[in-house]
Amino acid sequence: MRTLYHLWLSPFCRKVRLVLLEKEIDFELKAENVWERREEFLALNPACEVPVLVEPEGVALCGSDPISEYLDEIHPEPALLGQHPRQRAEVRRLVAWFDGKFNREVTENLVGEKMMKRFLGLGEPDSGAIRAGYENIHTHLDYIAYLIERRTWLAGDRLSLADVAAAAHLSAVDYLGDVPWEAHQGAKDWYARVKSRPSFRSLLEDAIPGAPPARHYANLDF
Asked: Which residue segment(s) compose the domain that 37 sits in?
């Protein structure tokens, strides 16, 4: 069986989990405390970063984009990258938006400051960064609503890796209760559709010891 080494609130790990679940691929989860720099894990990925997916024959794949695209190639249904080059270009553009811009402007400022610093022992959260995260998230939720007004899903007519990446980041922020859903109905409606998919149930069951999720986190109706 495949093994996914992950961290619970890493959006990049959540992205791969969702891809595996959307494609109904069996796997087991292993939480990896990357700050411990275990020799066995370094042998799998010298960068000592998650996600890492180990195939049944022992081959290790590293990074959320390489893993996701690999899985889409070997298990083409449902297709998450698109059916033709322009679709794939748009999916990749939006994946880069959420894994890059959203991650820098929102996820790192909220999840990173409020949770990861605590686990890594990096000191107190930066209140300025947290304020920036709260301010920046509105722009991204507005952009999601803009896309959904014009498309069925973020990148087109079908759910794609773009929706998976966006939902992975938002689910990590929502675990903390930091997504202002009530001010962004369009984004909320889109997330409710993603949240209600069978693949999302595993994420909604996450509960980190000592850091329980926001009360509404697992509710499909918020």
From this structure: 2-74
Q: pLDDT digit string (tens) for 132-145?
A: 999 999 999 999 99
Identify the CATH number of the domain in which residue 36 sits: 3.40.30.10
Are 96 and 6 within one domain? no
17 and 91 belong to one structural domain: no
The verdict on pTM exceeding 0.90 is: yes
| pLDDT attached to residue 133 | 98
Looking at residue 221, what is its pLDDT?
84
Number of structural domains, the chain? 2
What are the backbone angles phi and psi of residue 7, rounded to the nearest 5°?
-120, 140
